[in-house]
Write a structure and sequence with these properties.
The complex is a heterodimer of chains A (113) and B (110). Chain A is mainly β. Chain A has no helices and 11 strands. In chain A, the strands form 2 sheets. In chain A, strands 2, 4, 5, 6, 9, 10 and 11 form a 7-stranded mixed β-sheet that branches. Chain A has a 4-stranded antiparallel β-sheet with strand order 1-3-8-7, with no helix packed on it. In chain A, strand 9 and strand 10 form a beta hairpin. Chain A is globular and about 40 Å long. By secondary structure, chain B is an all-beta fold. Classes of the chains: A mainly beta (113), B mainly beta (110).
């Protein structure tokens, strides 16, 4: 079972460059999420999509945009990368119901120089 | 104030020891509670859900105290393979958002 698939796994960007992180899930989940993980900060929610057709800001949305392309896919875009966006990015998905867990992709390690 | 607070540790314990992790959450409207495990440079994976009545899965026991807004995880008879970071996770039904603690690092020493 593929579960949640993220691409790319690694990326190095120069300051000011743009890129899109792709995420797809094959579990027919309604909700999808983008998190970033930094040392000492834990996982912080960037954006989420509770269901197809909706997106909302999380704790740290500045500098990012998202697109819920369809039920399977949820992309994260950095329009003008900054060194502060160096982080590990995780996509996750979950069913829309109480007590359902979130499933994570393998992560994207992004370095902005 | 963070939604979920955890003691970051690190906890270094010998094999066979019992270790307990604690977590507090700030939003009384929280609906679901979980413990996740994250190995170095890997994605978080569900260890166990936490139910109001408390629940056990082998050597792992999770407890929830809604009145005190407190969650705990107890690991008995620690194994080397238990070495990881343990994340306390709370789900708010509104928007189906998951909030993570910063994680508690555990190293089990031979």
């Amino acid at each position: 079972n593929a579960g949640v698939t993220q691409t790319p796994k690694f990326q190095v960007l120069k300051t000011g460059q743009s890129m899109t992180l792709q995420c797809a899930q094959d579990m027919n989940h309604n909700s999808m999420y983008w998190y970033r993980q930094d040392p000492g900060m834990g996982l912080r929610l960037i954006y989420y999509s509770a269901s197809e057709g909706t997106t909302d800001k999380g704790e740290v949305p500045n500098g990012y945009n998202v697109s819920r392309l369809n039920k399977r896919e949820f992309s994260l875009r950095l329009e003008s990368a900054a060194p502060s966006q160096t982080s590990v990015y995780f996509c996750a998905s979950s069913e829309w119901a109480v007590a359902y867990e979130a499933f994570f992709g393998q992560g994207t390690r992004l370095t902005v120089v | 104030r963070k939604e979920v607070e955890q003691d970051p540790g690190p906890f270094n314990v010998p094999e066979g020891a019992t270790v307990a992790f604690n977590c507090t959450y700030s939003n009384s409207a929280s609906q679901s509670f979980f413990w996740y495990r994250q190995d170095c440079r890997k994605e978080p994976k569900l260890l166990m859900s936490v139910y109001s009545s408390g629940n056990e899965d082998g050597r792992f026991t999770a407890q929830l105290n809604r009145a005190s807004q407190y969650i705990s995880l107890l690991i008995r008879d620690s194994k080397l393979s238990d070495s990881a970071t343990y994340l306390c996770v709370v789900n708010f039904k509104t928007g189906n958002q998951f909030y993570f603690g910063t994680g508690t690092s555990l190293t089990v020493i031979p």
